[in-house]
UniProtKB/TrEMBL annotation:
Organism: Profundibacter amoris
Membrane-crossing residue ranges in chain numbering: none
NCBIfam families assigned: GRX_bact
GO molecular function: glutathione disulfide oxidoreductase activity
Descriptive protein name: Glutaredoxin
Origin superkingdom: Bacteria
Gene (name only): grxC
Gene Ontology, cellular component aspect: cytoplasm
Domain named Glutaredoxin: residues: 4-64
Keywords: Cytoplasm, Electron transport, Redox-active center, Transport
UniProt keyword annotation of Cytoplasm present: yes
Keyword S-adenosyl-L-methionine: no
InterPro entries: Glutaredoxin (IPR002109), Glutaredoxin_subgr (IPR014025), GRX_bact (IPR011900), Thioredoxin-like_sf (IPR036249)
Amino acid sequence: MQTVEIYTSNFCGFCVAAKRLLKSKGVEFTEYNVGRDPALRQEMMARANGGHTVPQIFIGDKHVGGCDELHALERAGKLDAMLAG
């Protein structure tokens, strides 16, 4: 199973939806709350090629994008393979 990292902030509905999908699949992930730490937001933006909205999701060393992209991978039947590596 690939490592999964998700950058979030408080009161973000898209963050909640992305985490809900991952949890429904039994995926453990590391969450970084950028609302509490400006340095984490800068790290997120650097890793996400300037992406400044949350969530920003990484599976293994691949930047997936946000909630919409995560759900699109699921609808296309590609998320499980990506998670498996």
